[in-house]
Amino acid sequence: MVALAAALWPRGRDTAADNRPEARVRAGVSEQQRAAADLAACPRPAAGAVGSGPLAGLTVECLADGGSVDLAAALAGKPALLNLWAYWCGPCAQELPYLQQFAQRAGNAITVLTVHSDPDEAKAISRLNGLNVRLPGVLDADARVRSAVGAPAVLPISVLLRADGSVARVEVRAFTGVDDIANTVGQELGVAA
């Protein structure tokens, strides 16, 4: 019995690697699922862009293609609205279509980026697809974005970033419509939409 137990006991297995968010999540997302969702590409850093502010050095995964995004560098030089949400959050599901409409209305004046704050990437992509939301989005399985900006552990949260990467405001509530978003962004970031 002891010999059998010793033979079956796992050895040399890197359990820390198996518990990484990338290892847990990526296995459940197919390229067909990404293609069906038709999400906008994540912002990419301009040549020579260096990010600053609380998100500096933070790398997350793009929901559209699974690639890595240096968040602060990708957002550098333009105001941004980061919406922290999760597939299981009811108020988030109500708010996401308003964010889509706001992004269309604002055009290139501001970057609107969804930040899925749960490790289940497949459910995030499915939820966005079901809501017909095509905004660029990233996976933040370990809530590093929330921690970096000092936001509480609730959802939804919108983080308004200035062009220099500093936080203008952490909005801890669901927006009630496109005008609500436009008024808040206009007041905090000076962006008219």
UniProtKB/TrEMBL annotation:
Span of domain Thioredoxin: 49-190
Top-level taxon in the UniProt lineage: Bacteria
Alphabetically ordered keywords of this record: Cytochrome c-type biogenesis, Disulfide bond, Redox-active center, Signal-anchor, Transmembrane
InterPro entries for the chain: Redoxin, Thioredoxin-like_sf, Thioredoxin_CS, Thioredoxin_domain, Thioredoxin_ResA/DsbE_sf
Gene3D superfamilies: Glutaredoxin
A GO CC term assigned to this protein in UniProt: cell envelope
Single GO BP term: cytochrome complex assembly
Main location: other
Compartments where found: Cell envelope
GO molecular function ontology, one term from the record: oxidoreductase activity
CDD domains referenced in this protein's UniProt entry, alphabetically: TlpA_like_family
Keyword ATP-binding: no
Coiled-coil ranges per UniProt: none
SUPFAM superfamilies listed in its UniProt record: Thioredoxin-like
Name under which the protein is recorded: TlpA family protein disulfide reductase
